Amino acid sequence: MLNKNVEVFMACEKEAHEADIVLFGAPFDSTTSYRPGTRFGSSAIRRESYGIECYSPYQDKDLEDTKVMDCGDLELCFGNTKKALAQIEEQAKEILDNSAIPFMLGGEHLVTLGAFRAVLEKYPDIHIIHFDAHADLREEYLGEQLSHASVIRRCWDLVGDGRIYQFGIRSGDREEFYWAKEHVTMRKFDFEGLEEVLEKLEGKPIYFTLDLDVLDPSVFPGTGTPEPGGVTFDALRKAAEKVCSRANVVACDVNELSPHYDPSGISTAAACKIVREMLLALSK
Amino acid sequence: MLNKNVEVFMACEKEAHEADIVLFGAPFDSTTSYRPGTRFGSSAIRRESYGIECYSPYQDKDLEDTKVMDCGDLELCFGNTKKALAQIEEQAKEILDNSAIPFMLGGEHLVTLGAFRAVLEKYPDIHIIHFDAHADLREEYLGEQLSHASVIRRCWDLVGDGRIYQFGIRSGDREEFYWAKEHVTMRKFDFEGLEEVLEKLEGKPIYFTLDLDVLDPSVFPGTGTPEPGGVTFDALRKAAEKVCSRANVVACDVNELSPHYDPSGISTAAACKIVREMLLALSK
Amino acid sequence: MLNKNVEVFMACEKEAHEADIVLFGAPFDSTTSYRPGTRFGSSAIRRESYGIECYSPYQDKDLEDTKVMDCGDLELCFGNTKKALAQIEEQAKEILDNSAIPFMLGGEHLVTLGAFRAVLEKYPDIHIIHFDAHADLREEYLGEQLSHASVIRRCWDLVGDGRIYQFGIRSGDREEFYWAKEHVTMRKFDFEGLEEVLEKLEGKPIYFTLDLDVLDPSVFPGTGTPEPGGVTFDALRKAAEKVCSRANVVACDVNELSPHYDPSGISTAAACKIVREMLLALSK
Amino acid sequence: MLNKNVEVFMACEKEAHEADIVLFGAPFDSTTSYRPGTRFGSSAIRRESYGIECYSPYQDKDLEDTKVMDCGDLELCFGNTKKALAQIEEQAKEILDNSAIPFMLGGEHLVTLGAFRAVLEKYPDIHIIHFDAHADLREEYLGEQLSHASVIRRCWDLVGDGRIYQFGIRSGDREEFYWAKEHVTMRKFDFEGLEEVLEKLEGKPIYFTLDLDVLDPSVFPGTGTPEPGGVTFDALRKAAEKVCSRANVVACDVNELSPHYDPSGISTAAACKIVREMLLALSK
Amino acid sequence: MLNKNVEVFMACEKEAHEADIVLFGAPFDSTTSYRPGTRFGSSAIRRESYGIECYSPYQDKDLEDTKVMDCGDLELCFGNTKKALAQIEEQAKEILDNSAIPFMLGGEHLVTLGAFRAVLEKYPDIHIIHFDAHADLREEYLGEQLSHASVIRRCWDLVGDGRIYQFGIRSGDREEFYWAKEHVTMRKFDFEGLEEVLEKLEGKPIYFTLDLDVLDPSVFPGTGTPEPGGVTFDALRKAAEKVCSRANVVACDVNELSPHYDPSGISTAAACKIVREMLLALSK
Amino acid sequence: MLNKNVEVFMACEKEAHEADIVLFGAPFDSTTSYRPGTRFGSSAIRRESYGIECYSPYQDKDLEDTKVMDCGDLELCFGNTKKALAQIEEQAKEILDNSAIPFMLGGEHLVTLGAFRAVLEKYPDIHIIHFDAHADLREEYLGEQLSHASVIRRCWDLVGDGRIYQFGIRSGDREEFYWAKEHVTMRKFDFEGLEEVLEKLEGKPIYFTLDLDVLDPSVFPGTGTPEPGGVTFDALRKAAEKVCSRANVVACDVNELSPHYDPSGISTAAACKIVREMLLALSK
C-alpha cells in the first residue's frame, strides 16, 4: 500500500492519544546574536536519529518500549519574536492539555520562554533546572529584552527568586554573575551539587531546559556560540539522566544545535543520544 | 490537533487514490565506484524543496494544481545489489498498478534498472530517453555486470537495438563510444536533435532517465563523479520540460545527487527545480 | 608609530569630509526564512576585498582615484526588525546629510527598506532599479509584513505604481507575478530592456538595489536561497556598471551574500568585484 | 635519475622479502548503512602519515628501524560483497605465506571477515581482540548477513564461543548485548580488564581488529557512524600498544576512517598515529 | 606477488627510457599572497585522475596509447624560494636531457620560473604562451621580486620583448596593464587571436604555461585568488588543445589548483581533464 | 558622526600612550611544511573575539578594566623569511620602546624568532617558557635553518643552555628528544613541574611562547599539524594563567591557529579565550 512519507525521531511513532511524551520542534533563531542556524536543529535531530540505536546500554532500556509521539516542527515566523513565542506557547499548552509531557527541540534558547509560559499556567509551583554554558540572565541584549541571552531572566520575571537552578555556567558578563548570587542558584563550570538540588526539589514540578552548548565544543562544535572549557559527553549524559529519572519533570527542552557549523555531524549525534537518554529516563 | 510529522516534496500532498504521479526515493549507492553518497539524494531533494517556490514562471503553472503523492524513501539493503533492485522493481510495479506514473529519486543510476524492469513488463514497447554525462554502456565494471557504469547496457539487454536515445554524453571508455554507434542513438555533449527524436517517438511509451551530472559541475558540484564541460541549467531545464510535456512519459527518474559533496546546497536546489519543472510538465 | 587597527574595503580610506560615497554594513538577517547568515556578508566583503585589485581593466579606472569612505558595520539588534530598520534609516540619513551617496552592504534584502526611507525623504521623486532572482513583492510572508520576501512591496507602499523597475526575476509565488503586471515593470530572467529604462529615467534620482542572488548559483553559491538559472557574472557586471555610470544613482545597496555557505570564497570574490565596479562607475 | 612515483606509509619502504609486517588497504564500504566513505580511509592514512613523525616519544622507537612494506590498496569491486571479501582473503593469505604479519587498513569493518578467514586457515587456534563502539554482533542487518554490523558475528560463526574479546562497546541493539553475554567476552565502554585478558591469552595467536570509532567522536569525527561517549586518544593508544607488544598478534586491522566527513583532518591524524604506535609495538 | 604502492596520473605508467612526456609535481606555495594551498595541487591531480576516463571523446584518443611517465612530486623547501626554484630547474633539465617534454604540475605560478630557466638553456629561441586571469607582470610584490605575481615579468627579464603572448588576462594593477602594452602581447578576457599567434609562432619552440584560474571561479573555485568573470571550461579545453596540438610545445605546466578550498572536488576534476586533453594533444 | 571602521580584539581599545600591553598580528606561514594557513590566524582571533565575553568567571576580571591596544596585523612579505622576521623584530622593538608588553598573534611559530630578538636586546637575561606539541628543536628542516620546526633551536642559538623550559611536547624526531636532554628543560606530554619552574625563575624576565597545538586536536582542530594526544582546554587555561600571573612575562605570543581547517570555529574560539585569560592575568 502506498502511504505518504512520515518522518519522526526513531521509534517515536505513537499517535496523540497513546503518547505520554510529545516531541515537537521550534525552529527559531532570529535573536541569535553571533552565528544563526539553530533553526535547522530540530529537523537534523529527527533525521539523524537513525544513526544511533533505540537501545541504551547505559539504562538497559529501549525506545521501542516507550510511548512517544513526534509531531514535527512548528512553522514559525522569522523576525517576529513575539508571534513565534505565542505559537510555541500554544503548542506546549495543547500537549499539556493532552496530559503528555512536552519535549521541545530548539531552535535557539529563547524558545524556552514560550513553552515555559504554558507550563507555568498549569503548574504555578514550577521550578527550573537549567544546564548551559551561558548564564542567559541579562536584563536586555542590544536593547532588546526578548533575546536568547536573557531567556532565563525572562523566566525569572515570571517566577521570582528561589525557583531557578543553573549548572555548568562558564560565560556571561560581570553583571549576570553578580546578579545570579542574589536571585538564582548557580553552579559554575560543572554539575556538582545536582544530587542535593534534586533531593531538595523532590516532588516539585520541574521544567528542565538543556542548552547543549554546556558540552565542550570538541564534543559539540555545531552551535551558535562555542564556549571552550565545557563538560564531557558522559558528564552531561549522567546528569541529564539523573534529572529525568529522579525529578518530576513535567516539560523539557533541548536546544542550540546548529548543525551546519559541523560538517562531521558529531554534534547532531550527541544531541540525538542525549534526547534518547532523556526519553528513556522520562519513561517510567 | 496533534499529528505525526509528515514530510513530502513541497505541495505533493495527495493520497494514493488521488495521485497521477507518485514520487519515491531509492537511496542506494553501493556500486558507486568513485565517491559514494547519492543515498542521501532523495531525502535532500524532499527536504530542500521548500527553498524554492511551487510556482514556475517558465511554465506559468503551480504544483498546488497537480496531483502528486510522495511516499518517501524505500529502505534498501546496502551491499546486496540484487535485493535492492528487486525492492525498487516492486515499488514501481505497485505505482503502475495504481495507474500512476512512478517518479523515482535516486540514488545512483543503477536504481533505474529496477524501475525499468517493472515498466517494461507493463509497456513492452517502452523506449528510453537518457540524459547523462556518462554513457553507462559498459558490459561490466571491475568484473561486475550490475553497476552504475553499465545500467543502460543492462536496459539494452532487455530491449535491444533502436530503443535507447542518449543526450549530453561526454565521458566513457573507448569501447562504450564505439559500441554505441551500433546499438543506440547517442548525441554527444548536448541536446541537439532532441526535437527530431521526440517527433519520431511520438505516442510511444517513454522511460525518461535523467542523471543530473549531465549538468556542468559548476551548476551541480554535488555528485559522485563530476565531469567538467556539461550543459547549463537552462539547457537542461528546457530539454527536460520538452521531454515531459511532449513525449508519452510513463515513468521517469532523476538521480546522482550526492548532497554531502556540496556544502552550499546549490546542487540540491538545482535538483529540486528540475523535479518541479518535470512534475509540472508531466501534469497535463 | 603605533596605530589602532583600521579595516576598510580596499582603498576606501577617505575621511567623512572628503568622501562622496560612504560604504556601511547592515549585518541583519532575522527575517530570512530559509538559510540565515547574510549578517556576515558585509564584513566578508570588506575583509576579502584585498583578494582582488583596485584597478579595473573593464573601465580602466582605479579605486585609488576615488573618494570613498568606509565607516564599517552598524551594530543592529537581532530579532527586533523595526528597531534595526530605524538604525539603518538613521545611518543613511546621516550620509545623505553629509552630501554623499550611501552605499549599503547587506545583510538580507529587507535592510533596503531602512535606507530607502531615508532616501525617499530627501528625494521624493525617487525611482527604484531592482536586480534580483526573487520578486520580493509579497504582501506578507508567514503572517509578517516586514520580511525579506516583501521588501520591494513595502517600498511600493511608499511610492506607488510606476516607480519600480525589476530585472532578472525568476522566482516568486503566482500572486507576485500577477500583481507585478499591474504595479511595477518586471523583466523576467535577464536584463533585456535595461537601456530603454535608463533612457526613460534619465535625470531622475535612482535607488539601485542589487540582490546578488540574481547571479547564477554556480557563480554565487553563498546565499540564503540559491535559485538555479541565473545570470552570468559578466552580464551582471555590465548591467550594474551601466546603471551606476548612466543613471543618477543617489543611493544603492548590494545584499544577500551569506559567506559561510561557500567555503571556496568565490561568492565573496564576486561581491567584492561587483562593489568595486559599482564604486568606479559611480565616481565620475 | 627519473623514477615512477611511489607512495607508502611513512618510512614503510621495505621490499617483500625484507618485511615482517605488510600493510595493505581494503577500500570497501558497500554495506555501510549510515554514511559511506571509508573507502577513502586507507589512502588518506598513507598520504597524511607525513604529517606526523617516524619517532614515538611514548615508546622511544622509530619506524626507520622497523621492517614494514606497504603494498598499497586493493582494487575491490563495489557492490559485490562476496567478491571483495575473496580478494581480501587472497591478499592476506599471500602475506601470511610470505611469513609476514598482514596489517590491513579499511574500509568498513566488514573487510575484517576476508582477512580473518585467511588467518584462521593458518592459525586454527586464533582468538580475536576487538576494540569498537559497536558490538557488530547482529545475525543480519536489513536482511543481509554480510554487513559491517554483523562482522564479528560472522567471525563467531567460524570459531564459536570463547574466542572473542570485545572492549569499549557502547552501541548495539538489545539482542546483541543479550546474545553477547552467552557467547563472547564483552567489556562495555572502556578497556578495563584488558590486562587480565592478555595474560589469559598469552602465547595464543591473536587477530587484533580495531574499529577506530571506539574513540570519542570529538577525537575522531571522520567516521561513518559517530557514537558519542567514546574513549580518549591516550586510552586507545595505551591499550593498542599493550595488545601489540604483549600479545602474539599474527594479523591486525584498523578500520572505519571516513576522511571526507572531517575537513580538519584530525581523524586521519589520529589513525596515522595509532597505526604508527601499533607498527612500533609489533616490531620486536 | 607483493609490490610497493605506485601512484601515478592515470595510465601514465611508462618508465623513463620509454617516455616522451614526463609529469612531475612542484608542490610549492610560499610566495602566495592571498590564500596558500597550491602545494596540494599536484598530488590531488594525480590521485583524483581516476575519477575521469583515459579516453577523450573530444579528440577520440586514449591515454593508454601515449608514452607518459609520472615521477611524482619534488620535495621542496618551503620558505626558501631560491632553493626551491633551483630544484625545479634541475628536475626540468634532467627531463630535457632525457629527450622528453617536462610537464610540470604546480604549485603556485612562480614554479614556472624554475622550469623555464632549464628550457631556455636548451631552447634559446623559446617563446611563451601564457593563459591566466592575472597578468603576473609586477616588477616586485611587497618588496619581493620572486613572487607568483611577478613570474612572467621574471621570464621577460630573461627573454625580453616580443616573446610572450598572454590570453585571458582580467586582473592586475594599473602598471601591469600599461607596461604590457610596450613589452608583451596581451589579450584581455578571452582567447581571441590565438589562431593568429599560433600561425605566427609556427615551428618556434614554445613554453606553454597555464594558470588554471583563467577559468571562471564557478568552474574552478579551488584556487588561491579566485577572480570572477573567467572563461568556460570548453573555451579553455579547446584553446589548450589547440596550443598543444598545433604549436611546437617543448615544455609546459598547469598550476594554481588549491584543492582544499573546494570540498566538492570539481576544481581538481577540471584540472585532471585539462591535463588529459593536453597530454593527448601533445602525443602525436 | 561618521568614522572609519576600526576592528580590534574585543575591548582592546586603548591608544598607544595608555597601553601597557600591545597586541599585533604576524600573519606569516611561508615555512610551514605540512598545511599552510596560519596567516589567517591573527585576524580570525581579532574578528571572532566578539563571540566570547570580556568577563572571565575564572579570574573574576574584565577586559574593560585593562589597558590593551591592538595595532592590527603587520603586512609581511610571503616567501622572504628574513625580511618578514626583520619586520616583526622592528614592531616588537617599537612596542618595548613604548614600555609596553608585546603580545604577538601568529602566524606560524617561526614568527617567535623575530619578536624574541627584539626582547633579547632589551632583556639579555631573558628566559623562555614554551608550550607546544612539537619540540621545534631541529638544527634544520629540509635544508633550511629558518623553519617553524627549528624556531626554539634558533632561540637557543642566541641564549644557550639553561634558558629554555618546554612543556607538553609530544612530537619530534629522535634527535630533537635526545638533544633536548643536554640543552633545555623539556617536560613531555603535560604541564607537570610548571610550579617548580615558575618558582625557580621568579623575577627573571620571561618570553612566553604558546603554540596552540599543545591542545588536543579535538579542542583545536584548526592548526597546520594536528598531533593527537594533547592537553585539555582547562589544563592549558590554568597553566597559561599561572605563567602570566606569576612570572615576570615581558613579551609573549600565541600562534599556529589555522582557521580555514576548522569550519566550526571552535579553534578560533579556544584561541580567543586563551588570549583573554592571558591578557587578564598579565594585567596586574
UniProtKB/TrEMBL annotation, chains A, B, C, D, E, F:
UniProt entry tagged with the keyword Thylakoid: no
Cofactor binding note from Swiss-Prot or TrEMBL: Binds 2 manganese ions per subunit.
Keywords, ordered alphabetically: Hydrolase, Manganese, Metal-binding
GO molecular function, one term: agmatinase activity
Highest taxon listed in the record's lineage: Bacteria
Transmembrane segments: none
InterPro entries, alphabetized: Agmatinase-rel (IPR005925), Ureohydrolase (IPR006035), Ureohydrolase_dom_sf (IPR023696), Ureohydrolase_Mn_BS (IPR020855)
The protein's required cofactors: Mn(2+)
Record has Transmembrane helix as a keyword: no
Binding-site residues, Mn(2+): H109, D132, H134, D136, D211, D213
PROSITE patterns: ARGINASE_1, ARGINASE_2
Any one biological process term the GO annotation gives: putrescine biosynthetic process from arginine, via agmatine
Family: Belongs to the arginase family. Agmatinase subfamily.
Protein name: Agmatinase
Organism name: Faecalimonas umbilicata
